[in-house]
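Annotated sample (chain length 147).
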Amino acid sequence: MWVDRQGRVSPPLPNIPPDRYRDVRISPDGGRLALATEADVFTYDVVRATLGRLTTDPASDRSPIWTSDSQRIIFRSQRARYPELFRRPADGAGRDEQLLARKDLVDLYPNSWSADGTQLLFTEAPSPGRCAIGQMAIERPSDWNVL
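Output written by the structure step:
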């Protein structure tokens, strides 16, 4: 369901089957949602009321976030049995592009963007109960560091 800033509730969104959805994010242009289940990332077009699967890899894909231009989605995956970050065009075209892989981590999540949209902020967990914040220049994914 939609709840606006004044607390008014709208009817449930059509054409979204029941599931354990998590990590729901509204696109910056306001026209779509990115959401994850236990296994995959989906997009939902609010105007067309259509749900589409963005990821299809058998591994768990979660934690989607939109790029500032609403054209791509960054998400985390366990495809290699360790945490990785990928990006993919939000329309599902093309292929997944690996941004960051960390064999030394328990987990890794994309979180947010710098004000200018050039730096991806992420949370990394080197061991259970410990976390750090990292950043990477999205156009130079190999240039990452822990803050």
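Annotation: The radius of gyration is 16 Å.
Annotation: DSSP finds no helices and twelve strands in the chain.
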